[in-house]
Amino acid sequence: QKEDIEVTLLPAGHCPGSVMFLFEGANGTVLYTGDFRLAKGEAARMELLHSGTRVKDIQSVYLDTTFCDPKFYHIPSREECLNGILELVRSWTSLSRYHVVWLNCKAAYGYEYLFINLSEELGIKVHVNKLDMFRNMPEILYHVTTDRHTQIHACRHPRDEDCFRGNRLPCGMTCQNGTPLHIISIKPSTMWFGERIK
Fold first, then answer.
1. What is the pTM for the complete model shown?
2. What CATH number is attached to the domain comprising 155?
3. Where are the beta strands (DSSP E) in the chain?
4. Helix (H) and strand (E) counts for the chain?
5. 118: Cα separation from own chain's centroid
6. pLDDT digits over 123-132, tens only?
7. Which of 182, 187, 186 is CA-nearest to residue 97?
8. Per the database record, which ranges form the DNA repair metallo-beta-lactamase domain (predicted)?
């Protein structure tokens, strides 16, 4: 038996290119999420999720997400997280130009929002190993750099933890103009909110 099904890809907000699948056919409509992160009101702005002035009737939703678990009962908004990180980075980097921050990002993609906002708010570009992964995201290119002489680093090394223990950034920087660096590490990870349920 054959049936025509319309498949619509909706932005998942998880990392660049991430999507949710909306399947529509004679037997109903199904939404398959995968990992997603949508702020309040974002779904209301997705035209393809609507029919006329209302949201399409969805019979089934498949939540295939890391955080569909009761232990993640509260995950702060992206804005709350950004403000906390921004406050910490601002207070640390303002101490001297030798006070630097290492953003211990475990994935290659998905932190663009953080890089752009830190750069815009503090006027400091974020050091990354290579720019080629961002070539198709021109809006971020102004906010990242391969110049290691900056106060915010998101450079990566296969064994980041080992590098950091020696007061050395993953890119190898230990000092500037002979002055040792003072490094703090920030690990932007949603997993923290499940590990520390209180």
1. 0.72
2. 3.40.50.12650
3. 6-11, 19-25, 28-32, 50-51, 54-55, 60-62, 99-103, 126-127, 144-145, 152-153, 175-176, 179-180, 182-186
4. 5, 13
5. 12
6. 999 999 888 8
7. 182
8. 139-193
